[in-house]
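Before a colleague's protein record goes any further, I have to sign it off. Would you go through it and say whether the fold makes sense for this chain? Take the sequence as given and treat only the tokens as open to question. The record follows directly below this note.
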Amino acid sequence: VVLMSMAAMLVTALAVPTAYDEGGLAFALGWLVVMLLHATLFRLATNPGATSSAAIVSLGSGNALAGVVLVVASFTDGPTTTLLFLGAVAVAYSTPYIWGVTGFSINPGHFAERHGLIMIVALGESIVAIGAGGGELSFDAGTVAAALLAMALVSALWWAYFDSASEAVEASMSVAAGPERSRLARDVYSYLHIPLVFGIVMAALGLKKTLGHVDEPLGLVSAAAFCGGVAGYLVALHLIHMRCRLRGDWWRVLCAAFALAIIAVAVRADALVALAVLAAVAAAAAVVPRSNSRAAGPIT
């Protein structure tokens, strides 16, 4: 079952670039097969009659319905395809909220580790963007400075997550009991990690554009993606703290506001200047007293 799931996911990944065109059906069927096999594997791994079996049926039904919507979308074009894709996303992500996640047995350490690996992969891809942006440029002082500042920025994002947020969420989940632990895992990992990863992707886009034009201002779209990605990442960390009922993390919200303000700098000054200021803001956001990340008490 695992090997079949891997094969289906490979097909889905290969079809992503053409998911809106001729690859739409392959993308949809690959997704549908992965979801069905995932539910099957979960059922095989659980004891008959276990509460988690009923829970996976509920989630699996929503994911399967999303796959059916994608299959329908593969036979359409234009705005209809976009609406159906958005509908599939809405179905997949609303199902855990509507039907609930009661019945799942959550291991806090396992959840934190698995999602931490996802964050490492996303941050690693941003490092790849540094090489992609500067790979064809002349090796001069500006390029070297930009590469080092980009590394500093990515390191600050890593630090902000793994030095406080990851451990704090795991601790909060450990003291949560019963269905609340499942709801906390759903909200923090299934929902609030989306803006984290999206912020990293947008920051990586900005890094690639910056490395390619260190002595020129960024375009408005690139500047907004770059600074907005970092800002969104920091706000998502704050929301995670709030959901875990930790002490206020408003310093990162302030840093996020500064990151957005840097857009005005990025479209006027050299991209290297904007990168330096943004890296400084990200580093400041990462240097948060660890006491702010301690759980305020059991979640009830």
Notes: The two ends are 38 Å apart (CA to CA). Residues 291-300 have pLDDT under 50 and may be disordered.
